[in-house]
């Protein structure tokens, strides 16, 4: 913990002079722009005055009121006119030079701004050297929550011998984190590039965590390879920030044994605390291809390392292979993916006869469709998502389908999930230790229905980088056929106020 904190402090100290230098460069450019504008204005004024004087003198020369005796004066006036015209031409030339210099500086400044905007977030400072660009930025996210006691719905946890406190007591909580991101990238004229991203986070409880930590390289708009900690393609997007507790944002603790499971193709997506990922992706016309590999302790997917009533024993790391194919045309995007563990006998348990029972077979399939007109019409545009996912696992099949629509900063969504659990093991109350015995049960099928909504409040304090979201959800589980769920365990609900500040 001390090492992490010291690293953050050292990074900020090193960043300070870079920030100062970047600010000095911007101030110098602004000063040059102001000086050139003043010179151009003064030159234009002198040219206009000279032209006016020349015009008045020409009028006097051509006037019939001039007599022949004034011939000498007329010659003098013509000489003055010639001098004034020459001065006017010189002033106009200076105006043209000043305007050219002004245009060149503005073009350079516009190019730098465009290059910065093409990256995620502008950052509060960005510096450019021969070794590439370096950017520092931040993301503050704090929540005020009110929710029922558990995020996941109880299906089998109330069986005799497995009693726990699952009453529907209300809970209030404050949570959140501050993220400080550092991005570095270098790109050559031929399109070759390499870069990194590090995003340490400090949460409200005083712990230090990490969002992304990734290194990547490739050729712009052609291919890319990345390795580290990150999230792959989202196959079940919930869109605008919402408060669906069991959605999960990493590959860990997604499956709570004995609870309803909303499968969203996240198990092999990445950001695991027990492993890392690598990916290769490419573009071809309207097509996008991605192959991600997550290597980790496979039992980390299961909370408390439990699956169907059994404690899992990890024998070797799993490898989740996750190919994604996406097609985008105008406002429409369609993507399909497979999320599968390709390592056999990675984890499981020893039965009463001492035989190892493999539980690591898990293969998921997903399809998602997106319609997005928000970029073309920021006021009345909509973002609509429709997603489906199916999991074929050992003694269990899960299916989920979800949709959500965002319009005028208000979003409404719905998720339906079906769990078909073929086998569940219940420990015999008279057994203990290595001599545990289990009863094999057939818990059956469950349906879960969830409705969620969110709304982004208008600009707070007229700051476009400060946003406030209101979110809520209601979820209910029901047993199918002869399966009954206790009424106290059927529903879950929650509400949230989220403060989001980007810099």
UniProtKB/TrEMBL annotation:
Pfam families: Porin_8 (PF16966). Keywords: Coiled coil, Signal. InterPro entries: Glycoporin_RafY. Residues 1-22 form the signal peptide. Residues 19-108 form a coiled coil. It comes from the Bacteria. This is Carbohydrate porin. It comes from Proteus genomosp. 6.
């Amino acid at each position: 913990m001390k090492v992490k904190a010291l690293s953050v402090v050292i990074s900020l100290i090193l960043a300070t002079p870079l920030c100062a230098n970047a600010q000095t460069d911007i101030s110098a450019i602004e000063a040059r722009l102001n000086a050139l504008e003043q010179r151009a204005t003064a030159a234009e004024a002198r040219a206009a005055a000279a032209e006016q004087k020349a015009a008045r003198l020409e009028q006097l020369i051509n006037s019939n009121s001039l007599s022949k005796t004034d011939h000498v004066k007329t010659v003098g006036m013509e000489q003055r006119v010639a001098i004034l015209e020459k001065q006017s031409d010189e002033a106009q030339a200076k105006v043209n030079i000043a305007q050219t210099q002004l245009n060149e500086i503005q073009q350079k400044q516009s190019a730098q701004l465009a290059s910065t905007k093409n990256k995620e977030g502008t950052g509060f400072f960005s510096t450019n050297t021969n070794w590439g660009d370096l950017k520092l930025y931040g993301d503050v996210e704090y929540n005020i929550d009110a929710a029922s006691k558990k995020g996941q719905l109880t299906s089998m946890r109330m069986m005799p011998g497995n009693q726990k406190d699952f009453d529907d007591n209300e809970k209030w909580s404050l949570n959140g984190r501050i993220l400080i991101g550092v991005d570095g990238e270098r790109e050559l004229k031929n399109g070759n590039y390499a870069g990194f991203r590090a995003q340490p986070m400090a949460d409200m409880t005083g712990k230090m965590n990490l969002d992304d930590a990734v290194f990547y390289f490739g050729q712009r708009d052609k291919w890319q390879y990345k390795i580290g900690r990150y999230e792959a393609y989202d196959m079940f997007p919930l869109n605008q920030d919402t408060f669906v507790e069991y959605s999960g944002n990493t590959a860990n603790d997604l499956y709570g044994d004995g609870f309803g499971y909303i499968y969203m193709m996240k198990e092999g997506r990445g950001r695991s605390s027990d492993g890392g990922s690598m990916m290769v992706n490419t573009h071809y016309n309207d097509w996008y291809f991605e192959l991600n590999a997550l290597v980790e302790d496979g039992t980390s997917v299961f909370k408390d390392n439990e699956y169907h009533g059994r404690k899992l024993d990890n024998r070797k790391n799993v490898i989740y292979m996750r190919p994604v194919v996406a097609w985008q045309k105008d406002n429409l995007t369609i993507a399909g993916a497979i999320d599968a563990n390709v390592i056999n006998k990675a984890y499981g348990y020893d039965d009463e006869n001492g035989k190892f029972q493999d539980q690591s077979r898990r293969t998921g399939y997903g399809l998602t469709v997106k319609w997005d007109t928000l970029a073309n019409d920021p006021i009345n545009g909509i973002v609509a998502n429709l997603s489906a996912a199916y999991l074929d696992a050992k003694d269990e099949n899960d299916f989920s389908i979800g949709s959500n629509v965002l319009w005028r900063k208000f979003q409404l969504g719905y998720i339906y999930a079906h769990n078909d659990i073929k086998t569940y093991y219940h420990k015999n109350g008279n057994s203990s230790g290595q001599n545990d015995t289990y009863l094999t049960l057939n818990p059956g099928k469950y349906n879960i229905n969830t409705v969620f909504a969110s709304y982004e409040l208008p600009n707070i304090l007229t700051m476009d980088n400060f946003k406030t979201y209101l979110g809520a959800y209601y979820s209910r589980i029901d047993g199918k056929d002869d399966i009954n769920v206790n009424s106290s365990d059927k529903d879950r609900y929650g509400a949230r106020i989220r403060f989001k500040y980007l810099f």
